[in-house]
UniProtKB/TrEMBL annotation:
The lineage of its organism: Eukaryota, Viridiplantae, Chlorophyta, core chlorophytes, Trebouxiophyceae. This is Mitochondrial import inner membrane translocase subunit TIM14. GO terms for molecular function: ATPase activator activity. Probable component of the PAM complex at least composed of a mitochondrial HSP70 protein, TIMM44 and TIMM14. The complex interacts with the TIMM23 component of the TIM17:23 complex. The keyword Transmembrane applies. InterPro entries: DnaJ_domain, J_dom_sf. It is a single-pass membrane protein. Component of the PAM complex, a complex required for the translocation of transit peptide-containing proteins from the inner membrane into the mitochondrial matrix in an ATP-dependent manner.
Length: 109
């Protein structure tokens, strides 16, 4: 008898959790644009520290280790040898150089 009650409570809890998850997903999907807004626009002609930090997804004042970690993570996803864009890879490298204080690279595109 007690195992049936425990099973019933477990099924009820799973159903309640599933309902809550579906409601949360629906609320996020129908969220106002301000919660899901991405940067609009292309790259600037001359890269700034602000743009470099946006490309790498970090603050302008991030330390060297964080910049290198972010650069590596993004390059793994966008490397031209793995099907990524050479233009995006160049911009990611330029952003790393900008945040590390190295000489800015000029774009060939």
């Amino acid at each position: 008898m007690t195992s049936a009650v425990v099973a019933g409570v477990a099924v009820g809890a799973a159903a309640y959790a599933g309902k809550a998850a579906i409601e949360l997903f629906t609320k996020f999907r129908n969220a106002p644009p301000r919660l899901r807004q991405f940067y609009k626009g292309g790259f600037l002609p001359e890269m700034t520290k602000r743009e470099a930090s946006q490309i790498l997804g970090m603050r302008e004042s991030a330390g060297e280790d964080r910049v290198r970690e972010a650069h590596l993570r993004i390059m793994k996803a966008n490397h031209p040898d793995l099907g990524g864009s050479s233009y995006i890879a160049e911009k990611v490298n330029e952003a790393k150089d900008m945040l590390l204080g190295k000489r800015s690279r000029t774009s060939h595109f």
